[in-house]
Amino acid sequence: MILLSLLRHAKSDWAGGMSNDHARPLAPRGEKAAPRMGRHIASSGKVPDTILCSTAKRARQTLDLVLPELGMQPKVKYLDELYHAGPEAMMAVLRRLPPSCTHAMIVGHNPGMQALALDLARRNGSADLAAVRSKYPTAALALYQLEGNWPDLRKGSGKLLAFVTPRDLKGA
Question: Could you write out the DSSP letters of every residue in the chain?
Answer without folding.
Answer: -EEEEEEEPPPBP-TT--S-GGG--B-HHHHHHHHHHHHHHHHHT---SEEEEESSHHHHHHHHHHGGGSSS--EEEEEGGGTT--HHHHHHHHHTS-TT--EEEEEE-TTHHHHHHHHHB-----HHHHHHHH---TT-EEEEEESS-GGG--TT-EEEEEEE-GGGGTT-
